[in-house]
């Protein structure tokens, strides 16, 4: 059974979402429903939508539970843009 849902969103986001839906030949309601379905489903259903190449890569990289992604990104960018002053 379908039910009506009212959402309040930024005008620009609505226009972009409408364009996205149009490009996919879907209604905006279908796009929103598919998104809700994706975020509320179990991992198995999401994994079914992933390409075989990406599926092969899943689990191939293991990081410690306490790994700080933001810090790692900061350190990488710092090294790339601030520490390397040599001109190539």
Protein topology:
Blueprint: H1 11-23, H2 28-40, H3 43-48, H4 52-57, H5 69-83
How is this structure best described in words?
With 88 residues, this protein is an all-alpha fold. The chain contains 5 helices and no strands. It has helices at 11-23, 28-40, 43-48, 52-57, 69-83.
What radius of gyration results from the CA coordinates? 20 Å
Helix content: 55-70%
* Sheet of most strands: none
Number of strands: 0
What's the number of helices? 5
* SSE arrangement, N to C: HHHHH
Strand content: under 5%
Calculate the mean pLDDT score and round it: 80
Kindly name the structural category: mainly alpha
Shape: extended
Q: Would you identify the regions where 5 or more consecutive residues have pLDDT less than 50? A: none
Distance between the termini: 63 Å
């Amino acid at each position: 059974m379908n039910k009506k849902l009212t959402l309040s969103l930024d005008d620009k986001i609505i226009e972009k979402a409408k364009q996205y839906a149009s490009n996919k030949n879907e209604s905006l309601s279908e796009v929103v429903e598919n998104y809700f379905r994706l975020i509320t489903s179990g991992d198995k259903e999401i994994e079914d939508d992933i390409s075989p190449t990406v599926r092969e890569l899943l689990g191939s990289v293991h990081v410690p539970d306490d790994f700080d992604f933001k810090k790692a990104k900061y350190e990488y960018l710092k090294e790339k843009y601030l520490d390397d002053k040599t001109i190539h």
